[in-house]
Design goal:
263 residues, mainly alpha, two-stranded antiparallel sheet, 2 strands, elongated
Length: 263
């Protein structure tokens, strides 16, 4: 039975409320985890420095350098095969985003192919990519944080001063280290698993997590990001995705044809 003032069956409301409650709890929990992680790296920046030093190879400085100068590089970043892997992983979220966008457009043109929850999840994924890795990470944080990348700091062969995670106003002026856009995009691939049927989702989860972790790890070992940049970029996408899903759940569902059955 359908309530006369609603486009949603009454029987479906409890599950929607429970789903919204779960999204709210998970979203707030992830936001708290993100904040606690930022606070930890901000208060104890030695964590970033210790991990980063594991991949740094010091070399003697040229004659005439400052006595306190530190010279060297991150040699793993020069491995051609790993650079190729990084390029593939960099492109992957954009490829999947394109597929989701095309699928959603097709669903609008040919209604009845997907359920409303599936369409809502597609919209949530596209909004997450735009808001998280797009606006928050690349437009705001990477443009205005000022945090130099490891390879740019004077602790790892560069000429800029080190800044702890969460500090603003450093010497970097564009495409800075805080936070990692590639880690944020890789986490989005994990979120995209919501579009898969549950059995396939469970099988694909280890693969997606492996891709996300490898993407984030490569940014650290290449000296392009600190561990805090990678981890905070990774978590940020999950926070945005859960809150976007929550917002879309709060919207009333319009009348929409059911997916066509296939015999």
């Amino acid at each position: 039975m359908t309530h006369p003032n609603s486009m949603m069956p009454i029987s479906s409301r409890p599950s929607l409320v429970r789903g919204a409650d779960r999204d709210l709890i998970l979203g707030l929990g992830l936001a708290c985890l993100w904040t606690a992680t930022l606070e930890m790296f901000h208060i104890v920046p030695a964590i970033d420095l210790w991990i980063q030093h594991l991949f740094f190879s010091p070399v003697p400085c040229p004659v005439g350098s400052r006595l306190d100068a530190i010279c060297g590089s991150f040699p793993i970043g020069d491995v051609a095969a790993l650079q190729t892997v990084r390029k593939v992983l960099f492109d992957l979220p954009f490829v999947v985003t394109g597929l989701v966008l095309v699928t959603l457009a097709w669903a609008v043109i040919r209604p009845g192919r997907f359920s409303m929850p599936a369409l809502r999840d597609m919209a949530a994924l596209l909004a997450t990519m735009a808001i998280g890795p797009g606006l928050i990470v690349n437009v705001f944080l990477k443009s205005y944080s000022g945090r130099p990348r490891p390879m740019q700091t004077d602790l790892f062969g560069g000429d800029m001063g080190f800044m702890a995670a969460g500090q603003f106003g450093g010497a970097c002026h564009d495409n800075c280290s805080f936070v990692s856009g590639e880690a944020a995009g890789a986490a989005w691939l994990v979120c995209a698993l919501v579009l898969l049927p549950t059995p396939l989702r469970r099988k694909a989860l280890p693969i997606a997590l492996g891709i996300a972790v490898l993407t984030s790890l490569l940014r650290v070992v290449f000296g392009r990001h600190y561990p805090s940049d990678a981890l905070l970029g990774f978590l940020l996408t999950f926070v945005v995705f859960q809150l976007v899903r929550l917002g879309l759940r709060a919207l009333p569902l319009p009348a929409y044809p059911s997916p066509k059955s296939h015999q």
